[in-house]
Amino acid sequence: MEDFLSTLSGIVWGPVLLILLVGTGVYLTLRLGFLQFKTLPYALKLAFRPSKKKVKNEKGDISHYQALTTALAATIGTGNIAGVATAVVLGGPGAVFWMWITAVFGMATKYAEAVLAVKYRIEGPNGEMSGGPMYYLSRGLKWKGLGKVLGVLFAIFGAIAAFGIGNMVQSNSVSDVMETTFSVPTWVTGVLLTLFAGLVLLGGIKSIGKVTAFFVPIMAIFYVIGALIIIISNFDMVLPAFGTIFTDAFTANAVGGGILGTVIRYGVARGVFSNEAGLGSAPIAAAAARTDYAGRQALVSMTQVFIDTIIVCTMTGLTIVMAGQYQGTDLDGADLTSTSFAIFLGDAGSYIVAIGLVFFAFSTIVGWSYYGEKCFGYLTGQKGIGLYKIVFVGFVLVGAVAQLDIVWIFADVMNGLMAFPNLIGLLLLSGVVAAETTKFLKVAKKERQEEKEARYTN
Predict the structure, then answer these.
(1) For residues 124 and 382, what is the distance between their CA atoms, to the nearest angstrom?
(2) Structural domain of 188
(3) Which of 149, 108, 187 is nearest to 437 (CA)?
(4) What pairs with residue 123 in β-bridges?
(5) Residue 338 contacts residue 129 (beta carbons within 8 Å)
(6) 166 to each of 60, 99, 356, 418, how far by Cα in Å?
(7) CA dist 58 to 13, 178, 218, 230, 434, Å?
(8) Which tens digit of pLDDT belongs to each residue from 49-80?
(9) CA atoms within a 13 Å half-sphere pointing along the CA-CB vector of 205
(10) Burial class (CB in 10 A: 0-12, 13-18, 19+), 1
């Protein structure tokens, strides 16, 4: 089974999907007039300095910021610690460069996902918003039932994938690092994670939003400060590290080795694994945001890719390249990142990675539980969601004590399968995205002008 899934994963995450992922981002970037470059400062302001002005037409369950942190909770996880390390080991330092390229164009993809998620979301019988690819595929694509088929396929893949990459592999990573670093038995870690996850998840999206709004900034700042201490105190190594990354990005390994070279393949694959742009997961959280225009929340969602890959992954990648332990070693994943931090900070470096991984992985469990719940609810209705939550929480304990090589591979396959229907929908509905963008940018321009006049008057 493991051999079969490995072969299937190689097919799913082959050149077709990787080209489609980056190609969709490039196409949307061109169609939206390089929106991510022009509006990033404004988008960051919307995310972290929201307007206190009350808007009559706002609908949703959580704030812009809570929707952002819920999505960040699901994406800032093992991919930022273990995923970057794996990319560097398998593809070389140049893989970090291709992660950046994936992120730059992935911002446009993430923006488009959120626009469609908000535009086509629905209000359930309990008053809670539901949205995401399954809804914008089924409601937006009307051609001979294509949208409904793609929507069902996405929901099936998403509901299953949540148990893999969003659950068991996360709890397994935490239990492993806690046992290695602090000698805590895996079952103890599993029980504690299960209890905490259950308390948060049973409260629904509002509870998840509050928890992630508190935890995400703390965990990200904690990890980034550790990396910044290394970078600043060893600043003479930073430029050579960047030079290694850029040089290796265009070596024979990058451009050779088939349709996609080794460096490009692992850089793109792990970049997507980290920020999930194109997979269709994050727009499920965006659909719950209180907003009056789809474009407003979409700009906030777009910043997630910037924070996740351009900031956090870069910190990890630079530290690993500066440490130089990625060549001729059996270390991989979180172990390589931990060793790299320890070279510069001693035991404190290992503790930073271990504690960071605990927070990252737990937040991913919380975020992905909501994604899986919404996908399952789309397929079965509200009656099945309670059972899904209970089973999901139970698998946190299973993941903590099990050997999960096969689950990692299975999760990769499910994530890749999620991307196909979502990317088809983004390309076919790009005209809707462009129209919504034009409408909102006119409103945003008027609002900024009014703010300037108000400041001048005061």
Answers:
(1) 9
(2) 2-457
(3) 108
(4) 129
(5) no
(6) 24, 21, 17, 13
(7) 39, 43, 29, 44, 21
(8) 755 555 555 665 566 566 666 666 666 666 77
(9) 28
(10) exposed
Q: Tokens standing for 314?
A: 């870069």
In tens, the pLDDT along 256-299 reads 444 455 677 677 777 776 788 888 988 998 888 888 889 988 99
Return the structure tokens found at 406: 């096969």
Q: What is the dihedral of CA 322, 328, 330, 336, to 10 degrees?
A: 0
CA–CA separation, 445 vs 429, rounded Å? 25
Tell me which residue has tokens 């999760």.
411
Question: Cα separations (Å) of 243 from 95, 230, 272?
Answer: 13, 18, 23
Alpha-carbon radius of gyration of the chain: 21
Domains contained in the chain, number: 1
Contacts of 210 (CB under 8 A, 6+ apart): 66
Structure tokens of 313?
A: 């992954």
CB 239 within 8 A of CB 67: no
Whole-prediction pTM value?
0.87
Contact of 415 with 161, CB cutoff 8 Å: yes
CATH number at residue 378: 1.20.1740
| Residue 70: closest CA among 226, 201, 198 | 201
